[in-house]
Amino acid sequence: MKCDVYLSFDGNCEEAIAFYKDIFDGDYMMIMRYKDGPPEYSKPEIENKIMHVTMTFGNGCELKASDDYFMPINKGNNYHVSIAADDEEQGYDIFSGLMEGGQVAMPFEDVFWGGKFGSGTDKFGIQWMVSSPDESKEV
What we know:
CATH architecture of the largest domain: 2-Layer Sandwich
Shape: elongated
Structural class: alpha/beta
Helix content: 10-25%
Strand content: 35-45%
CATH topology of the largest domain: Signal recognition particle alu RNA binding heterodimer, srp9/1
Number of helices: 2
CATH class of the largest domain: Alpha Beta
Number of strands: 8
Number of domains: 2
Radius of gyration: 17 Å
Distance between the termini: 32 Å
Order of helices and strands: EHEEEEHEEE
Strand order of the largest sheet: 1-4-3-2
């Protein structure tokens, strides 16, 4: 079984996924624009928008996304994308990158359960949680 994160945007998917690609040093596995899909989905005003993109990064992580023109996008607070960094430095770099232009809810710092953790909402309205392991317990 596998679980992927799928993000929906209201016209700025390409900008958002490029932002995430840079932060996570990702690779595009697929980019499909509306003009590449069935004719009933391609209208001149959206033909170059993202119908589907898959980006891979890290150890088997994937983000999938699209510009969704077929239902209203409600930016809510009922989800977070959770990233478990390999170490504190990577966690800090990821968190700092994601929060550039965004809003920090909890700074990336020591937490009572060990390691470091931070959460916030990026400039695209996506909520993130970033954690790193407790390096004081490593042998």
